[in-house]
Amino acid sequence: MKAWHFTTTNEPLVEADIPEPTPGPGEVVLDIKAAGLCHSDVGAMTDPGWLALIPHRPIVIGHEIAGVVARVGEGVTEVAVGDRVGVCPTASEGAPGYARDGGFTYQHRVLAGDLVPMPEGLTFELAALGTDAGMTSYHAVMVQGGLRKGDKVGIIGFGGLGQVGARVAVVNGAEVHVAEVNEAVWDRARQAGAVSVVKDVAEWAGQDFDVIVDYAGFGTTTADAVAAIRRDGRIVIVGMGRLEATISTRDVILKQATLIGSNGGTKEDVAAVYELLARGDISPEVTVIGFDDIPRGLDDLRNHRVTGRVVAHIAD
Q: Domain Enoyl reductase (ER): where (predicted)?
């Protein structure tokens, strides 16, 4: 079957023919219906620092996967042939696309315990992005952020993650404000329920936010967030636009601020996002492309030509 192989940093994906997988004990094989493209894929293709996470190459990348169970291995009772499922990428046997073959192909072998059932009416494209973009966004707001109804919440960055995180906060009763440099998406942020939108996080100084989630992570964004939270406020760092920040320890100490990282999430987070997506409470902006367009889609992500998420439709 056709697949897109990653070989090493700064080399194009290679179209390859690979054998169809066979499920072992406790495993299933999915017919992949949709696979999401992620900035993490772009990072792996352009930054040698990612190679430590991908020890075996060539490998089929792509870690946002949704499909239909095609075959089941010995001892599998959780799912059956024909079930519609997503794959939790914080997988027990290693993340797809990094530790083992991922989703930029037509079939995927995975432990049955790593699957999340899709609610009725949820499309495969939304289910795919929900496995990582949805999970990561939800986990940052609800779990690491500890959001409570009525909280004043700042969302930094209204891209593929921020648009989901903002809606999660709104749906759960928060007063949401957005900081986003791209004014072209401001109307969409307001439509998502943001009370206000600003271009620079520095404009929030002294406004006593309960929680700020930094989906951009450009150093100055995190530093300025410290000036914007209340005493005992919390800053959740998700984005890795820059890998360091200079922060006022004075403000951190006097405010008893909590700075916490957020990386991925759990099957429970994926399931919660699936329910929100299925109900229409979250409707992220999605560009759907074909299997043959995956390299171009990644190039569009790399060059910031995409608003929201990109998902490849793999098969009907």
A: 8-312
Instruction: Name residue, tokens 């109307």.
Output: 187
- The residue type found at 77 is T
From 217, 207, 223, select the one nearest 153 (Cα to Cα).
207
pLDDT, one tens digit per residue, over 8-42 is 999 999 999 999 999 999 999 999 999 999 988 98
Report the SS3 class of residue 90. coil
- The closest alpha carbon to 141, from 15, 234, 274, 39, belongs to 234
pLDDT value, residue 53: 87
With 0-12 / 13-18 / 19 or more C-beta atoms within 10 angstroms meaning exposed / middle / buried, residue 93 is middle
Q: Are 79 and 69 in contact (CB under 8 A)?
A: yes
The residues that bridge with 84 in the sheet, in sequence order, are: 68
Domains and CATH numbers, the chain: 2-131+265-313 (3.90.180.10), 146-261 (3.40.50.720)
The burial of 57, by beta-carbon neighbours within 10 Å (0-12 exposed, 13-18 middle, 19 or more buried), is given as exposed
Rounded (5°) CA angle 310-167-255? 115
Q: Over the stretch 203-256, which tens digit does the pLDDT of each residue have?
A: 999 999 999 999 999 899 999 999 999 999 999 999 988 778 899 999 999 999
Distances (CA, A) of 237 to 161, 202, 287: 12, 16, 26
Rounded Cα distance between 224 and 112, Å, is: 43
Report how far apart, in Å, the C-alpha atoms of 186 and of each of 83, 183, 192, 244 are.
39, 5, 10, 27
- Dihedral sign, Cα of residue 302, residue 305, residue 308, residue 313: negative
Instruction: Report in angstroms the alpha-carbon separations of 162 from 39, 135, 141, 155, 217.
Output: 13, 12, 10, 7, 12
DSSP 204: G
